[in-house]
Amino acid sequence: MRITLERSNLLKSLNHVHRVVERRNTIPILSNVLLRADGASLDMKATDLDLEITEATPAQVEQAGATTVPAHLLYDIVRKLSDGSEVLLATSADGASMTVASGRSKFSLQCLPQSDFPDLTAGSFSHTFRLKATDLKMLIDRTQFAISTEETRYYLNGIFIHTIESKGELKLRAVATDGHRLARADVEAPSGSEGMPGIIIPRKTVGELQKLVDNPDLTVTVEVSDAKIRFTIGSVVLTSKLIDGTFPDYQRVIPTNNDKELKIDCQSFAQAVDRVSTISSERGRAVKLALGDGQLTLTVNNPDSGSATEELPVGYDSDPLEIGFNAKYLLDITSQLSGTEAVFMLADPGSPTLVRDLAGDDALYVLMPMRV
User: Is the pLDDT confidence value at 372 over 80?
Assistant: First the structure.
């Protein structure tokens, strides 16, 4: 293999694919990226056996061929080469090493044979549909913060995507929960998604997707089966195994009879929560909300360091109520709201609270209270 390509193109593609590669690997080939030169492009592929990402980048191919080299090492080398330079990649005659040359710099990397590189064969997909990158980004951004990190309940370690009838329309819905809070977001269901199986996309895949859908002009092709999902985003193809588990019936925890309405200005509320929580203990992080006529008092008590209070004018005319929440969870939710105002629907100090955006965004949040 002998090819020349622009550093910027190589770096951009390597940046996408190298992130999938785990830093510590017991299987040496999984530390490598597969490079395959053919025609007028270089195809790169990396995998951790659960997630596979491939990307094609333009290249001048003098001699076609394929090999695998350490992914993080190649990325670090290319990152440190000078801007605007051209990079030559050439394998030795015996295929045991690859030269990376640019300007006066020259590196030699050890190769492993491409025949050893695993292929995450996808099989056939039952459903295919196209989704605007902005819609996919919205679904992920609004829900990913609520993904559970608790390994025992592995079926909560991802975002549950499914289609559902809502107000007479078919919606594509994303839901994530860690048992303390729940986030739900809807977009109009694209053609082809009707009847697709409900799937759980793993946290790592969600994180990679979030970085790939930053171009609002793109359209993403999504292919789904019971066990795998594939996203085609421009020149990048990301294939991932799905979490094999049953997502809980989240509809049961969404309150429908909360009758106490609190309207807040998102920014003022978030800043106040942030200020008073400065004094909270790392373990507790509880902030008490005391609601009266048009007034909200935020209080934090920490027996080790002191206390803090702050008052805010709010829209509230129901019975007085005191309820506690985890300050971090409140900040996570308010940072996702796209409008300037939010509405909290409350019931009592021990029941879940519903949070919505007054801007009419197709997202809602459920927050479990804490004892304070």
Answer: no
